[in-house]
Amino acid sequence: MENxxxxxxxxxxxxxxxxxxxxxxxxxxxxxxxxxxxxWIPCPVDPSHSVLEENIELHLKKRCPLLxxxxxxxxxxxxxxxxxxxxxxxxxxxPQTLSPKHHVLPSPNNFNITSETKRNAVYSMTAPxxxxxxxxxxxxxxxxxxxxxxxxxxxxxxHIWIHRQVDRKLPFQEKHVLQQASILGNLEEFGxxxxxxxxxxxxxxxxxxxxGNYANVPAVVEFGAGRGYLTQMLVDCYGINKVILVERKSxxxxxxxSLRQKESLILERLRIDIEDLxxxxxxxxxxxxxxxxxxxxxGPATEYSFAADMTLRCCIAGHCNESKVSQCSSGCYLRGMAxxxxxxxxxxxxxxxxxxxxxNLGITKEDFHAITWFTSWAVDADHSSDxxxxxxxxxxxxxxxxxxxxxxxxxxxxxxxxxxxxxxxxVLGFMCKDIIDxxxxxxxxxxxxxxxxxxxxxxNISPENHLLIARWDNNL
Length: 476
Known about the structure:
Strand order of the largest sheet: 7-6-5-8-9-11-10
CATH architecture of the largest domain: 3-Layer(aba) Sandwich
CATH superfamily of the largest domain: Vaccinia Virus protein VP39
Number of strands: 11
Radius of gyration: 25 Å
CATH class of the largest domain: Alpha Beta
Number of domains: 2
Number of helices: 16
CATH topology of the largest domain: Rossmann fold
């Protein structure tokens, strides 16, 4: 134990606190000194850490790291608050913000419907109500004629990663490598990626692209990049000249160090919420065709699953004339896209990209909340076999007979659902995931993209195995 250091033991870090004590007579730093009247409160800027109530003003003025980042971010040209957030008319109450002097961005999770709220709403239903809802899900799933083919691809170009012929210092988890390789393999099969001559992206679009040096040197924008290892594989295996990593959180052990060692590669990392990113204002992308990718846009990287919807808006909504979806604006340089969707249980109605599509299918906002909650069952199931292949509407009769599942009357939704067999709950979860992603696919098709939804890995590798791939359709 070092002298002159706080004596508070940090069990998660397996060491003592590295801060200095308050004074010579104190054993602890200001953060760990016990005070009888001390009251710790969550930081109003970043609730992930707490502050002594008496120090809150000083913390907000000088110390909060997120506040400093937000203040710097607001000065950047590509920052535009909520540009990709979608229609906010469905919010239950107006967002509450701090006073202007704080320059604080509201948390993306503010006023979202939590999983607990969704569960409580479902459990408050009667047996006939839950039976009717499940019947509707089966009916909608059958009506949209989903054909999500298995498309597990390991391209030849990625064999240096598959066979571990990469830098030994790079983190290597086989299941993630297989997922990354299949994403790239599907892009290659779809005609978006090429392995020859470093010309990675096909000319799929009629928009004018400048004839200078950048015309055939595409960039890659990875959304929710995390540590950036999907881009690392793409650069290693296909040859890319420019990389932009979009991520709201700071990470250790990033791929950036390895990527920066490549002399021909230009790397830029944007620490910003996808919701607030105006991609057209990123100076380094001006006039350059780019490929948009994203793997599992959720969890700590973005803290909200609707990042998939925001990514689609960020790349597509501002690029096409809404009245003539087959014609692109002069600033349209998106060439292709691959987005692996994830964590559908966190989706929010207010941010979902195709509410009109679901409404036309008879799905209300309340239905949507329940549907998103059901999707967690697809992930929680036993995936020693590919359960997604069990999705079959002919099994709906067994599921929706809530009164019979209870074995007695009257009973509520909780009893109905708890008495459903696990495989039936998983089937229902997969159906709900299909419905949510099909709405996203249809939104892209309406805007002139050639789009496909595939299962890019078996569910025993990852049950979050839906991949949206797209390119511009020249036939429109």
